[in-house]
Design brief:
3 helices, 11 strands
Length: 176
């Protein structure tokens, strides 16, 4: 699944009463956001509990075909939250950008998707998964626990510059 490049725009307009920059020259490119997420050693994933309360936990992010992906045990709190409500937020940062991506996380179950995400985890983190029976397993751990791979379909994202005064919003189109 490939995604169209998002539209980048200032988060605030000159009409807004805000200390944030309204200079279009400060708009960050989506490439800068992609680099931020690709290089992040961890990101924070926020999901929604069944009672509506938020839940945030660190995850290891990888990008596959431009989409943020992560893994978690299906029985974990975040795994159960996503099974009931795919809406989530993932955040990461580096010296250039603090990044917030809103979207829906869906568990990946097709063989090609599993292979591609497993390959991304091996390349970035050296974490190897055994793929069998439509699932991903860590055979290096006792009991070979199952992990779910999730792909986030971004709906919008926000990037904040290190100066605290620049902000970009990206709006995503439909998947191609």
């Amino acid at each position: 699944m490939n995604f169209t490049e998002p539209t980048a725009e200032l988060l605030f307009s000159p009409q807004d009463a805000t200390p944030m920059s309204t200079d279009e020259a400060t708009i960050k490119s989506w490439d800068q956001a992609r680099i931020c997420l690709e290089s992040a050693p961890k990101a924070w994933l926020s999901t929604v509990r069944p009672d509506g309360r938020p839940h945030a936990m660190p995850v290891l992010p990888v990008l596959v075909d431009g989409a943020p992906c992560f893994t978690t045990r299906p029985g974990s709190r975040k795994g159960r939250n996503l099974a009931a409500n795919p809406g989530c937020v993932i955040t990461a940062g580096n010296d250039v950008l603090d990044l917030v991506i809103e979207g829906d996380a869906v568990r990946v179950g097709d063989d090609d998707g599993l292979r591609r995400i497993a390959g991304a985890f091996k390349a970035k983190f050296g974490w190897e998964f055994a793929l069998r029976d439509g699932g991903a397993y860590d055979d290096g751990l006792p009991g070979s626990p199952e992990y779910g791979f999730y792909r986030i379909t971004p709906q919008r994202a926000f990037g904040y510059g290190p100066d605290g005064l620049t902000a970009t919003r990206w709006r995503f189109g439909q998947a191609t």
